[in-house]
Amino acid sequence: MIDRKWEGCRTKPFSFSISRELIQEYANVIYDNHPIYHDVEAARAKGYPDLVAPATLPIICWQHASIPWLEHAVGLVHREQVFTYQEPLYAGQQFICEIHLKKIEEKQHAGKRIQFLKHELIGFLADRTNSSKPVFTCSSVLILQEEGMR
Amino acid sequence: MIWEQLNEGAELSPWLTPPITADWLYDYAKISGDFNPIHLDPQAANDAGFEGVIVHGMLNMAMMMKVVTPWLDARTMVKKFQTRFHSPLKVGESLHVSGRVVNKALEDHTITIRLEGRNQQGDLIVVGMVILEVT
Over its length of 135 residues, how does chain B's per-residue pLDDT go in tens digits? Predict the structure, then answer.
């Protein structure tokens, strides 16, 4: 199980860039062939400055973070996910992100301890770092069972 | 346009995904960095109590959005998209996605859509809520 000392901790800030290729490739993998994700002219015709990112795309930021409290956790199960936006994300933007372990809740289930790990990933536009409000927030509840540590 | 067309109770065009293949899960693992073996290795999935590898929850969530995408433009933004993962979708299964407008709020110009993803047996896999802000 994850030591309670990590509750409230944050990762080091890391950067995340969105390119046209990333949006196109991600949209292919999630099987969304809508032109706003693939064709710049079609996106502009809808009023966007460039390709717009699918709403779930920021989750792939997780792979760019070093998350010390999850280093030895195996068998994590994703329970809940929320994305909140101040504005849409576009190709060509760069973000500064961090992941925050907001809360560790423990429950008993069938005689086993289970932890509910409430994480928040936030992203600020790299050219607007003086803003105190993240452009996007992704909250993830992950479940860890008692035997799920190496 | 969307504001006039999407009224409370309106059903979005549903979508049945193709059967999810092991190769597809590998492609999702590569782009997301989520190489959790329960999505890739049948033995690891069995050891974790599943009958075969299971689809990444985040892939299910991402695919649900496809029924909303046609409604988006620069004036119709996804303000919030939340999901609860109920049960796993197994490799080889398809996700049947449906969406219904459950609320339209004049005061903040939002449209709330409830999304559901079920497997072909009708089991509930994932439930979501999308709030669109229309300006």
Answer: 789 999 999 999 999 999 999 999 999 999 999 999 999 999 999 988 888 999 999 999 999 999 999 999 999 999 999 999 999 999 999 999 999 999 999 999 999 999 999 999 999 999 999 999 999
Tell me phi and psi for residue A70, to 5 degrees.
Answer: -105, 5
Instruction: List A94's β-bridge partners, or say none.
Output: A17
Query: Out of A36, A37, A75, whose CB is closest to B48?
Result: A75
**Residue with structure tokens 């409430």?**
A118
Q: Would you give the distance in Å from CA A59 to the centre of its chain? A: 3
Characterise B112 by phi-psi region: left (phi > 0), alpha (psi -120 to 50), beta (else): beta
CB B33 to CB A79 under 8 A?
Answer: no
Structural tokens at position A35: 């032109």
Q: What is the C-alpha separation between A67 and A14, in angstroms, rounded? A: 11
Residue A143 to chain B, least CA–CA distance (Å): 11
Burial of A89 (0-12, 13-18, 19+ CB in 10 A): buried
Q: How many CB atoms lie within 10 A of CB A19?
A: 13
- This model of the complex carries an ipTM of 0.96
Q: Pick from B27, B31, B74: which is nearest to A47 by CB?
A: B74
CB contact under 8 A, A82 and B32: no
